Amino acid sequence: MAFYQKMKLNKTLIPVLLLILSACSNVEVGGVTPTPVIALVADQPQVTFEAETAPSPVPFQFSLPTPGAEPVSAWRPPLYPIPWAMSPYDHFYFARPIAADQVNWPSADYRYGGVFFGRNIVHTGVDIPTPEGTPILAAGPGTVVWTGWGLFSETPGNQDDPYGLAVAIRHDFGHNDQQLYTVYAHMSLMNVIKGQHVETGEVIGFVGATGATTGPHVHFEVRFPGNSFFYTYNPELWIAPPQGWGVLVGRVMNDKGELIQQLKVDVRSEATNKLFEARTYGKGGAVNADPYYQENLALGDLPAGVYKVSFRYADEDRDRQTWVEIFPGQVSYFKFDGKNGFSTERPPAPTLDFLPFAITATPPP
Ligand SMILES: [Zn+2]
Question: Going by C-beta distance under 8 Å and a sequence separation of 6 or more, which residues neighbour residue 331?
């Protein structure tokens, strides 16, 4: 709106702007000419040109927000250094595959475990929407074990592969003696070759829209113990949060103790009233729960503070709700089952009960 009014004030601005816009489209990013694509993120403000670089007959002008429209900052604090863990069960081992001066957090519309392309295709990673040509960075040190088409179908060169041009890294470290991998899909261009060793933050490729995608973004996965579609885990439990921010995990079950799938859960900040939405996912198929938390819900990038968690359980006529506190750099946990309601007591530490039955003291009957 403000832009349109300025345009009316000064028609000579138009050729100047056209010049600027045409110059932009010729900018080379890493050898790729990006197409003019605007990536909209659910809770991001739309970036508008205020024509500050062009001469204007109005020397100074107050810009007031539209009444009723709450201005939302796109800024998030710098990330904790990796590896980051404040409890033996947390494992924020990875940096983000997009630099901090861009949107570098998962899209809230299609998180891990979401179902989008069809009832039977579940989302095995997170999507970070950024403009085509944005550099994609290695999330940790490791060796490139896959480049190119065919990662999903495990058929090198398969140009029908939904992952498009993808890179997979086998990391120099593991977790609980298990090998860790990360995957970066839908690239426009790759910057590494198979067998190459990379360090955290090294440019391994550029954002694109190859494969099955509705627009440019990087699809990021964390896998262990093997580099397989069936071994993915929720990346929001593996990428370091912004400093002062934390992560919520939940295990939401019905009366029978079964995980509830695709339940919409509202998480609302008591301090700011900002609403974060997530959906539960089920165990099984290509979606796995963290070995310790056994969660079916995870929500990263939450500023520290108290949140109200609510959802509609079964066919009840009002929402179930509880309050959880998010602490800086930590995972907060809640559990729900229909009979007993909410609990924030964490799962017990692994004990000898986890050993195979054959070596317990009690002989089988
Ligand atoms: Zn994705």
Answer: 87, 89, 90, 237, 246, 247, 248, 249, 293
Q: Which residues fall inside 5 Å of ion ligand 1, going by CB?
A: 127, 219
Report CA-CA distances (Å) from 125 to 93, 96, 131, 236: 16, 13, 19, 9
Note the maximum CA span of the chain.
Answer: 91
Q: How far is the CA of 234 from the centre of ligand 1 (A)?
A: 12
- CA angle 236-242-243, nearest 5°? 135
Sign of the dihedral defined by the CA atoms of residues 200, 204, 206, 210, in that order? negative
Q: Residue for token digits 């550029």? A: 206
Specify the pairing of strand 165-175 against strand 232-233: unpaired
Q: Give the per-residue pLDDT at 33.
A: 35
Average per-residue pLDDT for the chain:
80
Which residue, 235, 222, 50, 23, is CA-closest to 142?
222
pLDDT tens for residues 73-113?
A: 678 899 999 999 888 889 999 999 999 988 999 998 889 99
| pLDDT of 360 strictly over 80 | no
Using a cut of 0.85, tell me whether the model's pTM lies above it: no
Q: Which two tokens stand for residue 172?
A: 């120099």
What count of other Cβ atoms lies within 10 Å of the Cβ of residue 203? 14
Of 82, 76, 94, 79, nearest in space to 243 by CA: 79
pLDDT at 26 > cutoff 50: no
How many angstroms does the Cα of residue 297 sit away from the middle of ligand 1? 17
Ligand 1 centroid – CA 338 distance (Å): 32
Rounded distance from Cα 323 to ligand 1 centre (Å): 30
Range in 125-129, 182-186, 348-352 with the lowest mean pLDDT:
348-352
Residue 206 pLDDT more than 60?
yes
**Lowest-pLDDT range, 96-105, 112-121, 179-188?**
112-121
The full set of domains in the chain, from first to last, is 115-237 (2.70.70.10), 245-343 (2.60.40.1120)
Whole-angstrom distance, CA of residue 17 vs CA of residue 220: 36
Please give the single-letter amino acid code of residue 42: A
